[in-house]
Design brief:
The protein has 351 residues and is α/β, with parallel strands linked by helices. It has helices at residues 12-20, 55-65, 85-105, 121-132, 150-153, 157-165, 192-213, 235-250, 257-263, 275-285, 298-310, 315-347, and strands at residues 3-8, 26-29, 35-38, 45-46, 69-73, 110-115, 137-143, 169-173, 225-228, 266-269, 290-291. It has a single domain, classed as TIM Barrel, CATH 3.20.20.140. Strand 10, helix 10 (275-285) and strand 11 (290-291) form a beta-alpha-beta unit. It is globular, with a radius of gyration of 20 Å.
Length: 351
């Protein structure tokens, strides 16, 4: 069974809320009737066909694309978590409840990741705890810019600790933080779309991976499955230079970055990348660290399936990417959530 670990979905309750809003984030219409997402960023964002499918339509498309199970998440581009907490929290709860309902109705087809308000750490932790008690929720989606450095990651320390208690999956997705004065800036005076959705995307994901793999951030959280997307940025293309620089700057006995990346407890999905990139990522991270991802679209599903098919890796490695690695991560998360729920019940006084 093919498992899609990067399956964005916007339930109808969220699209209705975004269409009703009159300020970012909102779904607006051009004069020709075409909808687009205004999230307050520098460019309006195209909404892919089927982004707001109902559950049954999504299932039919998964069947058509050969996907057996999807890990549903809300893309960070919608920025509902950016809103003031009194506005963000109801929307986050609505999304998390809707995804859980889909998982409960189709437990063999869906698992889910919670979305959390970004401006208040206590509210984020409380919603994570609440969501992890819901059927089908196995972790959370976190904003990538929070992990550009270890210092930035401090805002999610409580979430990391809570996730560690539950063997949870934390999907760290490209996205900016609200009111971030130190965020990297992209010059969009020309070729804005390419500069943002390719060059900036991959560069920030690479920085996330350095934080996860070349620092001790995750040392205290061995039970967490951290997942990046788009093969973790450009690491697989740049690892030889990293090793070379380490040997030049630190001497022949320097610990090589390539070993730390390979040893790290992290997954990367193959969304948007091709066969040659998958080969490199498999060599750098190991076939046990790569998972299938589609961005939640039919186009993405076929693209990724074709790329894995054409990759010059073994059939066993292809099966690991398509199913085995994801199945193991989901099983750990389900077991952790069940254990945590029993532990909480054991500590709760009878009424």
């Amino acid at each position: 069974m093919v498992i899609d670990m990067h399956a964005h979905w916007v339930p109808p309750v969220i699209t209705a809320a975004l269409r009703a809003r009159r300020s970012a984030p909102m779904i607006a219409r051009r004069p020709n009737g075409e909808e687009y997402l205004d999230n307050g960023g520098p460019i309006p964002l195209w909404l892919p066909e089927g982004f707001d499918d109902d559950v049954e339509t999504r299932l039919a498309k998964m069947d058509q694309g050969g996907v057996g199970h999807g890990l549903l998440s809300l893309a960070t581009q919608y920025r509902i978590e950016w809103l003031p907490t009194d506005q963000a929290l109801p929307l986050c709860r609505a999304f998390n409840d809707a995804v859980s309902q889909a998982c409960e109705s189709h437990p063999d087809r869906f698992s889910g990741l919670a979305v959390l308000p970004a401006l208040d750490a206590n509210s984020a932790l409380a919603e994570f705890e609440r969501s992890m008690s819901l059927p089908g929720i196995v972790g959370a989606l976190l904003i990538g810019d929070a992990f550009l450095t270890v210092k930035r990651a401090e805002r999610y320390q409580d979430i990391l600790a809570a996730a560690n208690d539950r063997n949870a999956i934390l999907f760290v997705h490209y996205g900016q933080l609200p009111d971030d004065q130190e965020a990297p800036q992209v010059d969009t005076s020309d070729s804005a779309f390419v500069r943002i959705v390719t060059l900036d995307f991959q560069a920030r994901l690479s920085s996330n991976m350095v934080t996860f793999c070349l620092t001790d951030l995750l040392k205290d959280y061995p039970n967490v499955t951290v997942m990046s997307h788009n093969l973790g940025g450009n690491i697989a293309f740049e690892i030889e230079r990293m090793d070379h620089r380490a040997l030049i700057d630190q001497g022949p006995d320097a610990p090589l970055p390539s070993k730390r990346f390979r040893d790290a407890n992290i997954l990367v999905d193959c969304n948007s990348l091709g066969a040659r990139a998958i080969e490199l990522a498999t060599a750098v991270f190991g076939a046990d660290k790569v998972v299938f991802g589609t961005d939640g679209s039919m186009f993405g599903a076929q693209w990724s399936l074709d790329a894995i098919r054409d990759a010059r890796i073994s059939d066993h490695e292809k099966q690991a990417i398509l199913e085995l690695n994801a199945a193991a991560a989901l099983a750990r998360a389900r077991a952790g959530a069940h254990h945590a729920a029993r532990h909480v019940m054991a500590r709760t006084p009878s009424q």
